[in-house]
Amino acid sequence: MPESHLTKRALSDALKTLMRTQPFAKITVADICEQCGMNRKSFYYHFADKYELMNWIFDMDVLDLITHRKDEQSMEKMAVLCHTLYENREFYRNALNVQGQNCLRDHIREIARPIFRARVAEVLAGEDDIDFYTEI
Which of 84, 83, 93 is nearest to 20 (CA)? Predict the structure, then answer.
């Protein structure tokens, strides 16, 4: 595993640990760095802010599922995703309560929108107004 990925994993583990006991709004980059024994320079080399780190954690959980389990059926993937979300429930419960710019809810919408749109386009083949059905 590349060193960059190890550093990101250490930072993400630190944020997950902190979010078990305190709200995201109260956690600072300094807290994250202290938790994993890194300096702020290392943090900012990899992430613009703590919101980007939070979204990266979600991406890794979901992308890992999609890229490393290509041969599994959709229901098997869904079961693994649900297990992952359950295992990290304190983090996700806290993360989904964050509102405002760069929040996880908006990040998930950005990822889901084109996937949802493509699926609706398949189902409604020939329809002209796909946007009507897919805009959130």
Answer: 93
